[in-house]
Amino acid sequence: MRFTLDMKLKDIMSSNPKTVEAMQELGLHCLGCAFSVNETLANAAQMHHIDPNLLLEKVNSVGQGEMSPEAAAKAQPPGGILQMDKKTYSIAPHIPAGVVTPEILRKIADVSEKYHAQALKVTSAQRIAIVGLKPEDVPKVWEDLGMDPGHAVGLCVRSIKVCPGDTFCKRGLQETLSLGMEMDKRYHGMQLPSKFKMGVAGCPNKCSDSASVDLGLMGTSKGYHLYVGGNGGVKPRQGNILLENLQKEEIISVVDAVMAYYRENAKPQERLGRMIDRMGIEGLLEYAKQAEPSHKE
User: Fold this and answer.
1) CA–CA distance from 184 to each of 48, 98, 119, 225, 274 (Å)?
2) pLDDT at res. 295
3) Residue 151 resides in a domain
4) Residue 33 pLDDT > 90, yes or no?
5) Which end of the chain is more exposed for a tag (fewer CB within 10 A), N or C?
6) DSSP letter assigned to residue 163
7) Tens digits of residue pLDDT in 284-296
8) Per-residue pLDDT at 31 exceeds 70
9) 3-state DSSP call for residue 91?
10) What is the pLDDT of residues 208-254, one digit of tens each?
C-alpha cells in the first residue's frame, strides 16, 4: 500500500506499525498521543518542520512489520505533550469554562508534588498544565487525577475560553458560565478540518478573545454578537461579525449550523477564517440564519 500526504498518522501506523520507527527518526515523537495521530502526514510535517516529501518517501520505504519495543518505548504517552527537552512531558487536565474548585486545585497540587513535576502553568486556554513529567509517570498521573485530558492539540475544538460574565463581573452584560459550559460539553474535542478555538465574553471588552478565535460570542445589552473566522498565528485574522444580538436560546442551533457548514466546506487543515476568505461569508451567513429559531417555520 502506498501512503499519501493526506492520510492520517493513525491510519498509516495501523496499516504498517513499523512506519513508527521511520517517523521517529525524522523527529515525530508524538505518536502515542490520541490527538496528534489524527493529524495527516502533511500536517505532521508542517508542525515538525520536516520536508513533507522526505517524510512521505521515508514511510513508503519501510517494509511491512511490527513496531519494535524500542519504538514503542519512545512513543508519546497518551495525553502527554512532549516538551522542549525532548525527554519530559506536560499534561493539561480539562477544566470546563476555567472554573475550578478547591478540591480540584488540591488534587492537582498533590499529584504534581507526588510525581515531581517541574512546574504548574496556567495556560491561555484556562487550563492548568502540569509540566516536566517523566514519560513513565504520565499514565499514573492521569489515573491519580481522575480528570479528562484537555484537547490542547489536534484537529478539533480546543477548550472553550469563558469570562465570568454577569455572574461575577461588574461589567458583564450577559451570562457566560452556564452557556460556556454547555458549549464546552457539546463541542470540546469535536473533530473538524483544522484546529478550532472558541471564546465566550459577557461584554465588549472581549476578555476571552471572542473576536480573535474561530468562533466567539460577545455579550451586549440586547443579546450576543457572534464572531467567526478569527485566528492568531503567523497570519493573524480578525473575526467577522456574523449575527448580532442573538438570544441565549438561539445560540446552540446557530453554532451547530456554523460547525456543520465549516465541516462540509473547509479544505483539510483550513481554518474557518481562511475558508471565509476563499468562499466569502454570504453562504455561511445564510446557512446560520436558517438555523435561528425565529427563522424556522
Assistant:
1) 29, 10, 26, 18, 24
2) 47
3) no
4) no
5) C
6) -
7) 999 999 987 654 4
8) no
9) strand
10) 999 999 999 999 999 999 999 999 988 999 999 999 999 999 999 99
Q: Position 28: which residue type?
A: L
Number of domains in the chain: 3
Residue numbers of the domain that contains 97: 81-145
Where are any strands of DSSP class E within 151-285?
Answer: 161-162, 198-201, 215-219, 224-228, 240-246
In a domain, 141, yes or no: yes
pTM above 0.85, yes or no: no
Residues 291 and 165 in one domain: yes
CATH of the domain at 112: 3.30.70
Residue 178 inside a domain? The answer is yes
- Rg (C-alpha) for the chain, rounded Å, is 21
Domain's final residue, options 34, 49, 74: 74
Round to whole Å and give the CA distance between 265 and 96.
Answer: 29
Please state which of the ranges 83-92, 135-144, 147-156 shows the lowest mean pLDDT.
Answer: 147-156
In the chain, % helix, strand, coil (3-state, to 5) comes to 40, 15, 40
